[in-house]
Structure formats: structure tokens, C-alpha cells
């Protein structure tokens, strides 16, 4: 489990110098200006070391097409991780991923609100990071497995045996953000569907997303699918990839995927 409790932050690259500098910026309640980088390209988001969890900016400041890709070919190869092969044997994966898969992995149940629960696995040093990047509001650790293969087998077994999904769609997560999250009910629902009883470690993840104690999101937000022009706004919350902004007295939700690699950010 992660030993350090972090506040919501994003990693940002200062690309205006010869060597790009990556900084970690706490963003909640900050007044920021977001503006789209114009053109049909976006910047590579760099590399990520799956074992040490260190990330580095792209050394070549590579531009990539506006596709689903986030990395240039060099950074993708250097990262050496393909989540689609998480449960597969060594013939399918890089050396680094083989080492990663041999390390302990957690199996968890994650709660997103209103009895919406998924089962998943997480590298032992990245449990909180994995849960919060998905926007889980509470979680229960089912088991710490000796490696990724054991965790994957248990995850799939829980899917089949209990009918718990291993995927929650983004649209469902956004719908759930409009309702108040009831921590007490969530904890009961998580405990009720864990039939292993090995671990009953419950995690409340709300403090990772909000600065206020209410842990509430204004439910009248509207969704932005793209950042069309420059806006000055205040960050109210970030739940998983959903960034909730206050802009001109209204609340907007935009996915960080829509901003990554193609947005200039100025923090006031
Ligand atoms: Zn790159």
C-alpha cells in the first residue's frame, strides 16, 4: 500500500527550456488558465518506470498525431508496459513487465457509488494511485497476492463467481458523480460482497479528490468534450480523470485525457 498520503496533483512539463522540466503541482482551488495548443499535433507525455513509478518528460519533445496514443514510439518502448497483457505469461511481455508481474499485487474491490463495484488488481506499491486514477470513492482489499498472475486469476474468479465486473464505463462514473456519495453504505456493500474474508481493510478515498470536508461535487455540472478556447477557471475537484472546474459561475467537467499533451497551463 502507498505509504504517503498525497493531495490531488498533476504532473506538468515546462517545455520552454532546452531540457524539459517536469513538476508536480497541487491544483485544487487554484486559479488557472487553460488554453489549447493549436494544430493537429500533441506533445508526447514521456516515459513511466513501472517498477520505480518515476516518470520523465519526453527527451525529444516529440509531437504525435491527435490519435489515442499518448507517447512517441521511443517513450512507449522505454516504458515497456502494455496493460492488456497484465495477466499473460512471460512470452507476451517485456523484461521489465516480467519483473513487475513477479512482484506482489493486490486484488481489491472498488466502489464508485450506488452499489457500483468493480474488482481489480494493483501493483503493491501503487494501490492508492491505481484506485484514485480510476476515481474509486472507497475500496476493500481482498488479498495481497504473491504476483500479478495469482492476482489476475483471483480477479477473474471473483468476476465469474460473484458477477462483479472488472470494468466501469466512464459515462457511468460521471452519472454517479452527480449523486451524493454515502461512505457508510459503500463500506457495507463492499464487505457484503467479499466472500474471501482474508482481508477486510477498507479505504476511504474521498480525501484524495476534494479539499472540503463535504466531499461533494456540484451536481449541476455540464460536460466539456474539448477545450475549444482559452478559459480561466478554478479547480474544484479531481475524481479519477474527471476534472471539475468552476468557470464563469458554472461548473464544468472535462476529462484530463482531453487536455493531456495539448494544453498550455498557467497557474495564477
Ligand atoms: Zn516521447
Task: Give a short summary of the structure.
The chain has 268 residues and is α+β, with helices and mostly antiparallel strands. It has one domain.
Number of helices: 6
| Separation, N- and C-terminal Cα atoms | 34 Å
| Extended strand count | 16
Low-confidence stretches: 1-5
Helix % is: 10-25%
Strand order of the largest sheet: 12-15-14-13-3-16
Strand content: 25-35%
Hetero groups bound?
Answer: zinc ion
Instruction: Give the helix/strand class.
Output: alpha+beta
Alpha-carbon Rg, integer:
19 Å
Order of helices and strands: EEEEEEEHHEEHEHHHEEEEEE
**How many structural domains does the protein architecture include?**
1
| Overall pLDDT confidence | 87
Can you offer a commentary on this structure?
- By secondary structure, this protein is α+β, with helices and mostly antiparallel strands.
- It has one domain.
- The chain is built from 6 helices and 16 strands.
- The chain has a 6-stranded mixed sheet with strand order 12-15-14-13-3-16. A 4-stranded antiparallel sheet has the order 9-8-10-11, sandwiched between helices.
- Strand 5 and strand 6 (55-56) form a beta hairpin.
- Residues 1-5 have low confidence and may be disordered.
Layout of helices and strands:
Elements: E1 9-14, E2 21-26, E3 31-36, E4 41-43, E5 47-48, E6 55-56, E7 63-65, H1 73-79, H2 95-101, E8 105-111, E9 117-123, H3 127-134, E10 138-145, H4 148-162, H5 170-177, H6 183-192, E11 201-204, E12 222-223, E13 231-239, E14 242-247, E15 250-255, E16 263-267
Parallel strand pairs: 12-15
Antiparallel strand pairs: 1-2, 3-13, 3-16, 4-7, 5-6, 8-9, 8-10, 10-11, 13-14, 14-15
The structure holds zinc ion.
Amino acid at each position: 500500500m502507498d505509504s504517503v498520503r498525497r493531495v490531488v496533483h498533476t504532473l506538468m512539463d515546462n517545455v520552454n527550456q532546452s531540457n524539459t522540466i517536469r513538476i508536480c503541482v497541487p491544483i485544487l482551488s487554484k486559479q488557472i488558465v487553460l488554453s489549447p495548443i493549436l494544430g493537429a499535433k500533441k506533445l508526447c507525455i514521456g516515459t513511466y518506470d513501472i517498477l520505480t513509478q518515476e516518470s520523465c518528460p519526453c527527451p525529444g519533445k516529440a509531437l504525435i498525431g491527435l490519435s489515442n496514443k499518448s507517447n512517441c514510439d521511443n517513450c512507449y518502448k522505454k516504458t515497456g508496459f502494455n496493460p492488456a497483457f497484465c495477466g499473460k505469461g512471460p512470452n507476451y511481455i517485456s523484461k521489465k513487465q516480467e519483473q513487475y508481474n513477479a512482484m506482489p499485487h493486490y486484488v481489491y474491490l472498488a466502489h464508485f457509488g450506488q452499489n457500483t463495484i468493480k474488482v481489480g488488481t494493483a501493483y503493491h506499491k501503487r494501490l492508492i494511485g491505481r484506485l484514485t486514477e480510476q476515481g474509486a470513492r472507497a475500496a476493500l482489499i481482498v488479498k495481497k497476492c504473491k504476483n500479478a498472475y495469482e492476482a489476475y486469476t483471483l480477479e477473474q474468479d471473483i468476476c465469474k463467481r460473484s458477477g462483479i465486473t472488472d470494468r466501469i464505463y466512464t459515462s457511468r462514473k460521471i452519472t454517479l458523480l452527480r449523486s451524493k456519495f454515502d461512505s457508510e453504505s459503500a463500506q457495507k456493500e463492499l464487505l457484503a460482497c467479499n466472500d474471501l474474508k482474508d482481508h477486510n481493510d477498507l479505504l476511504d478515498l474521498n480525501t484524495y479528490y476534494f479539499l472540503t470536508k463535504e466531499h461533494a461535487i456540484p451536481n449541476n455540472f455540464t460536460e466539456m468534450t474539448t477545450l475549444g478556447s482559452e478559459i480561466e477557471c478554478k479547480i474544484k475537484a479531481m475524481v479519477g480523470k474527471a476534472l471539475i472546474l468552476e468557470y464563469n459561475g458554472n461548473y464544468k467537467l472535462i476529462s484530463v485525457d482531453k487536455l493531456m499533451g495539448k494544453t498550455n497551463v498557467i497557474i495564477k
